[in-house]
Predict the structure.
Amino acid sequence: MTSYLMDLRGLIGNRVILLPSVAGVIHDHTGKLLLQEKASGEGWSLPSGAIEPGETPQDAVIREVKEETGLVVSSTGILGVFGGREFRYVYPNGHQVEYVVTLFKCRVHEGGGKWTDTETKSLRYFAIDDMPSLALPYPLPALFS
């Protein structure tokens, strides 16, 4: 958690925070989608995270993907912006967030490096009919367009 979010939590406790965030949609050469298994046991998700103060959404998705996957990417477009009650999430420690997620299509420039984020347990590509449930309800057409 960034110092910005820690400061907010110090002020409001576990109450819900509306959180601008990003997620990266990355496919392999066969069209399978890259997902990140969370080290916390919370299941699978897209590489994603909060936008930090002063950071552009494009810079945030590039940073988050690099931290969580080791891949160097660029954003090639916005697939949608999602939020609302369906994107509310309660972490195991009781912190409540409601994400407003800008979903970016990403192209890999280099990869194979080790991720630096302790949130990642493993990475795997999934076909649309083989996908696990995700922590947030992204519409499948946006993920496989």
Q: What stands out?
A: The mean pLDDT is 92. Helices lie at 3-12, 57-69, 140-143.
